[in-house]
């Protein structure tokens, strides 16, 4: 029961990434407040305030109905205009930068809250309008509730002004890349601070029993700590062979175990694998490398032709790689200093190859971009130090490949000599 409760909690937690989560939450809050105001009106709050603070009460039926009708129609127009701009932003980001950026832009919490404020105010005004009786006198009119509709409308106008400012910032590629970098940096620093790894703590797993995935989709998250507790109960070790963030089909090997597991235990373990049809950097920092690389590649395409953005993207990649070299290529989950779960990760060699392969293919003809890439690689090589021979060799291979591709793509000998002088 405890495992199922945790799984349910994780699923509910994932709802916050949906575009409708915060609007729905605020809409429900608006409805609850509406019925609270109706309850207070039934108890005679407007009649009381009309005698004590008459300036707080709208005591004219036609004025109240006109205000509420105007608010409803105006707010619907504002909402349509606001989120037409969101669609324009998403279309521009997809065509000019990368389609991979869309999940992050759609899940922008601030824009969702603005939409929720609009919807909550519209619902409030509609229900208060319906509550007004055509022939009611000033003591029956929900004047205090109408006053709140004015306050909510002012809040919506403030939210609209904020939204215009926010959307103008969101559409700038530098802000998009900065947001991606900061999220990925936070995730990597967390992993680096909490990782504990000793290569002798986990045996070879080639002969272990393999278990296949029961679902398909992107492996979004794995609760390694919970799986480690199950492994400890069964006095076994588990090796998760699939890299988080990759797409998995059904019947693909998901994990291995040194012992054969019963069906009940397998059900418990499978519950701690979360699959999704989309990817988020908060769960997988590797996605940040992919997104920023695609921004650089798209910027260098003939249709966009924006080398400045590509140079900025390489700067961000350089900072991300500087953090990545501090992380181990393998992740283990411990309980009482014993390793029970091993998780496959994208190692440094594969990660830098995937990034450089794309950039070399589409940017090798540009001398300035090649110079920037060489500077990045040499900076990483210097940070690694001579004691890490493996990483040194990996970077040397990438430098040689980059110079070789540049020699094939660039015909000017002076440019080639300039590139070689850097390395």
UniProtKB/TrEMBL annotation:
Keywords: Membrane, Transmembrane, Transmembrane helix
Bilayer-spanning residue ranges: 20-40, 67-90, 111-132, 144-164
Keyword Metal-binding included in the entry's annotation: no
InterPro entries for this protein: DUF2254_membrane (IPR018723)
Pfam families attached to this UniProt entry: DUF2254
Listed name of the protein: DUF2254 domain-containing protein
Protein species of origin: Algibacter amylolyticus
